[in-house]
Amino acid sequence: MIMYGKTRVVVSKDPKDLGRASASAVASAMRDFLSKQDEIRMVFAAGESQSTFLRALGKETGIDWQRVVCFNIDDFWDIRMPEPFSCGAQTTRELYTTVKPKAVNLVRFNAVDPEVECARFEALLREKPIDILCQGIGTSGHLALNEPDQCSFTDVRWVRLVNLVPQSKKQLIADPNFKELGYIPEQGITMTIPAILSAERVYTMVPLKLKKPIMTRLAGTSAPTASLPASILIEKEGLLYVDEDSCPDAWRAGDTA
Fold first, then answer.
1. CB 231 within 8 Å of CB 161
2. Phi, psi of 238 (to 5 degrees)
3. Using CA atoms, how far apart are residues 149 and 227, in angstroms rounded to an integer?
4. Contact criterion met (CB below 8 Å) for 80 and 48
5. Residue 161's Cα: distance from chain center in Å?
6. Beta strand 7-12 with 238-243: parallel, antiparallel or unpaired?
7. Separation of alpha carbons 182 and 81, rounded Å
8. CATH numbers and ranges of domains, the chain
9. What is the DSSP string of 175-216?
10. Could you list the pLDDT tens digit for every one of the 257 residues in the chain?
11. What are phi and psi of 12, to 5 degrees?
């Protein structure tokens, strides 16, 4: 078994295999929660790395989505950006329109006042505990849009307006979901690290070759550091899915943090 601290690592063959495996695990957790409580609250992320997972989860059976309240983990903030290029639009296309949850809470990417939007979204998140959170890791090492050296592991706020670093913009502008926009906004609205860690179960999906450098760095990081936000996963029980292309060589060799 490969472990990154408290997080268990699962190596899949390719993005489709990763999508199926992670969707099966998340669906099983959903059924478990729904057998014990009236409704569950879930968080989802956008981006190329999440596509196979979102589509596979939409095909899972035996889930009463009318008892599921969904949130997006983040979005860009840019009042001039067309709605189809928002993160919320992607998760809607790839999951929400298929499963039709009880409620979907998206970040208002074009809010006139981003700080007011941060407060609104945070209030929604804090109403009840988050049961399941699904996310990726960016090539900058960010979780959601919590960028290197710009995040706090002890932030008292659950939602913030943030600045995207050049590496994140480089990755996202090549992402099929955002490429046609021609640019990536300078800022975003994101759940903070403490908000992410508040979820009872956390699933992190990181396929694709472009993620191997940052995952290799992660594998060699043995304690949480703000210079690599994803390193906080070493302290959180959860599942981290990689594929053959994104898997660090150290993990293939059985070396773990």
1. no
2. 175, -170
3. 5
4. no
5. 17
6. parallel
7. 11
8. 2-247 (3.40.50.1360)
9. STTTGGGSS--SEEEEE-HHHHHTSSEEEEEE-SGGGHHHHH
10. 899 999 999 999 999 999 999 999 999 999 999 999 999 999 999 999 999 999 999 999 999 999 999 999 999 999 999 999 999 999 999 999 999 999 999 999 999 999 999 999 999 999 999 999 999 999 999 999 999 999 999 999 999 999 999 999 988 888 888 888 888 899 999 999 999 999 999 999 999 999 999 999 999 999 999 999 999 999 999 999 999 999 999 998 765 55
11. -105, 165
Please report, as a single letter, which amino acid is at residue 166: P
Residue that is written with structure tokens 């407060």 in the block: 119
Q: How far apart are CA 51 and CA 37, in angstroms?
A: 28
Q: Please, which residues have CB within 8 angstroms of residue 99's CB and are 6 or more apart in sequence?
A: 57, 58, 63, 65, 68
Structure tokens at 101: 């949850």
How far, in Å, CA of 232 to CA of 148, rounded?
12
Tokens of 106: 């998206």
What SS3 state is found at 24?
A: helix
